[in-house]
């Protein structure tokens, strides 16, 4: 039996009918049609499905859709501000933080969650923050550099504004 | 997803949860409590757990509190590992639990997984359990007849087995404030550092009196090496009243290794685990003493 679920996705309120066994990743990809978050392992081990719930990174394959009732969910689609890419996205582009791109949406959201908590992470802290995300292509160094770079860019931007 | 359908309910109070569980038990309906989901979701997918009803307890505010009450800290079952890592109260009074929670899974898992879930799932590799054992934590179980309070060591019976009844809910984990003189250490050995579930872990808290040059008290628990989590009492005894020296440390390591073999019998992993347990114990005790 389907249940009505109300939540916010990338700032937009949603009301959808979902089956109890539908996972959050299935809801986002198959029913709402945002295919940024990927399904890698479907078991909470690779981070490809990472989204934010109330600003915190979680594996959306390990959450039932109904569990986000009343919460706010962000996917990679919500990262850019219209046509203006998020500094994380800019940095990944400029610094070669991706190759095939399969892990990238998850990496970006894990990085966003990390920067939410710690705007100026050390390399060590970035590595720790990405410990739940696997990449089969890049060897991680460029991903870590990209995030470090993004943090610097965001600090500058913040500085200019104030 | 291929697993069978189930009914879903998300009660607002612990009383409703218990009532739902009671009715399910009475009617012979398989019910599962859903906390963070990091253990239950893979089980659903693999078909090792096939509930007819899933009772989501994430919407009950009282299960999310961390509160100091007199000489205890009360931690709601739905407090996440990430919250244990950042909570000032937990860090100050039960630092070893914070340290253990930091070792759990990845950030994504720490944001979802809960202390209550970790306890009830009773995986021998759970990182928080040895920490709770040396903190001498108590568990509050709420059932149709009321509450019962158990010591954490009485809760587990075997790997993935506990004494919780089908109509009971773990509501709180109660940690008595340890003596302020105690110094604690949590160590973990795993294959892949970050995500791997523990292959072996250890929590240690002790007070070494530098004037008297003796160990006044010691609490040690090694995880994932015995059928159920227990204190390494033989190693504790080998230290108490003794000075901090290489011989004493070695004796404690030996005692711990022997107790592990006694409790779990000889298994294929024993040849590996025996020296490792001894080594971990020595290392942890040394680190705790060096903390001053
Ligand atoms: S798909 Fe969710 S963690 Fe791999
Ligand atoms: S860029 Fe291919 S998996 Fe990471």
Question: How are the SSEs placed, and which strands pair?
Answer:
The complex is a heterodimer of chains A (162) and B (292).
Chain A: E1 3-9, E2 12-18, H1 24-32, E3 50-53, E4 56-59, E5 72-74, H2 87-95, H3 104-117, H4 123-129, H5 141-161
Parallel strand pairs in A: 1-5
Antiparallel strand pairs in A: 1-2, 3-4, 3-5
Helix pairs in contact in A: 2-5
Chain B: E1 7-9, H1 14-27, E2 31-34, H2 40-46, E3 53-56, E4 66-69, E5 72-76, H3 81-86, H4 88-93, H5 95-102, H6 107-112, H7 115-121, H8 128-134, E6 138-143, E7 146-151, H9 152-155, E8 156-158, E9 161-162, E10 169-176, E11 183-189, E12 200-209, E13 214-223, H10 233-239, H11 246-264, H12 270-290
Parallel strand pairs in B: 1-3, 2-3
Antiparallel strand pairs in B: 4-5, 5-10, 6-7, 6-10, 8-9, 11-12, 12-13
Helix pairs in contact in B: 5-8, 10-11, 11-12
Bound molecules: FE2/S2 (inorganic) cluster (2 copies).
In total, the number of strands of chain A is 5
* Relative strand content of chain B: 15-25%
Structural class of chain A: alpha+beta
Fraction of helical residues of chain A: 25-40%
**CATH structural architecture of the largest domain in chain A:** Roll
Please characterize this protein's 3D structure:
The complex is a heterodimer of chains A (162) and B (292). Chain A has 162 residues and is of the alpha+beta class. Chain A has 2 domains: 76 residues, Roll (Ubiquitin-like (UB roll)), CATH 3.10.20; 70 residues, DNA polymerase, domain 1. Chain A has 5 helices and 5 strands; from the N terminus they run ββαβββαααα. A 5-stranded mixed sheet of chain A has the order 2-1-5-3-4, with helices on one face. In chain A, α2 crosses α5. Chain B is an alpha+beta fold and 292 residues long. Chain B has 3 domains: 50 residues, Uridine Diphospho-n-acetylenolpyruvylglucosamine Reductase, domain 2 (2-Layer Sandwich), CATH 3.30.43; 115 residues, Uridine Diphospho-n-acetylenolpyruvylglucosamine Reductase, domain 3, CATH 3.30.465.10; 92 residues, Enolase-like, domain 1. In chain B, β4 and β5 form a beta hairpin. Classes of the chains: A alpha+beta (162), B alpha+beta (292). At the A-B interface, β4 and α3 of A face α2 and α6 of B.
């Amino acid at each position: 039996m389907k249940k009505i679920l109300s939540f916010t996705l990338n700032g937009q309120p949603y009301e959808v009918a979902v089956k109890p066994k539908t996972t959050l990743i299935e809801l986002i990809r198959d029913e709402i049609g945002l295919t940024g978050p990927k399904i890698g392992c479907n078991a909470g081990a690779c981070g490809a499905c990472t989204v934010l719930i109330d600003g915190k990174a979680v594996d959306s394959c390990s959450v039932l859709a109904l569990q986000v009732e009343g919460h706010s969910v962000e996917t990679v689609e919500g990262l850019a501000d219209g046509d203006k890419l998020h500094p994380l996205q800019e940095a990944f582009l400029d610094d070669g933080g991706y190759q095939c791109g399969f892990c990238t949406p998850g990496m970006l959201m894990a990085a966003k969650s990390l920067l939410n908590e710690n705007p100026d992470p050390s390399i060590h802290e970035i590595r720790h923050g990405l410990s739940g995300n696997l990449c089969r292509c890049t060897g991680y160094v460029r991903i870590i550099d990209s995030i470090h770079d993004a943090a610097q860019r965001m600090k500058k931007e913040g500085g200019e504004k104030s | 997803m291929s697993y069978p359908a189930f009914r879903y309910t998300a009660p607002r109070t612990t009383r409703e949860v218990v009532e739902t569980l009671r009715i399910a038990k009475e009617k012979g309906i398989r019910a599962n409590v859903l906390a963070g989901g990091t253990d239950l979701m893979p089980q659903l997918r693999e078909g090792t757990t096939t509930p007819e009803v899933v009772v989501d307890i994430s919407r009950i505010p009282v299960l999310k509190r961390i509160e100091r009450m007199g000489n205890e800290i009360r931690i709601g079952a739905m407090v996440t590992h990430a919250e244990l890592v950042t909570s000032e109260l937990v860090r100050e009074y039960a630092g070893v639990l914070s340290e253990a929670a930091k070792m759990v899974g990845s950030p994504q898992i720490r944001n979802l997984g809960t202390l209550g879930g970790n306890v009830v799932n009773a995986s021998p590799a759970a990182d928080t359990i040895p920490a709770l054992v040396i903190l001498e934590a108590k568990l509050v179980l709420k059932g149709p007849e009321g509450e019962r309070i158990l010591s954490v060591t009485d809760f587990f019976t075997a790997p993935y087995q506990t004494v919780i009844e089908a109509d009971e809910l773990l509501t709180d984990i109660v940690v008595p404030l340890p003596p302020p003189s105690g110094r604690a250490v949590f160590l973990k050995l795993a294959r892949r550092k970050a995500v791997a579930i523990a292959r072996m872990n250890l929590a240690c808290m002790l007070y070494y009196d530098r004037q008297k040059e003796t160990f006044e008290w010691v609490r040690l628990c090694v995880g994932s090496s015995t059928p159920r989590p227990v204190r390494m009492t033989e190693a504790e005894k080998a230290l108490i009243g003794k000075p901090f020296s290489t011989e004493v440390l070695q004796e404690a390591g030996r005692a711990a290794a022997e107790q592990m073999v006694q409790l779990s019998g000889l298994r294929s992993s024993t040849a590996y685990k025996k020296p490792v347990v001894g080594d971990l114990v020595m290392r942890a005790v040394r680190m705790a003493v060096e903390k001053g």
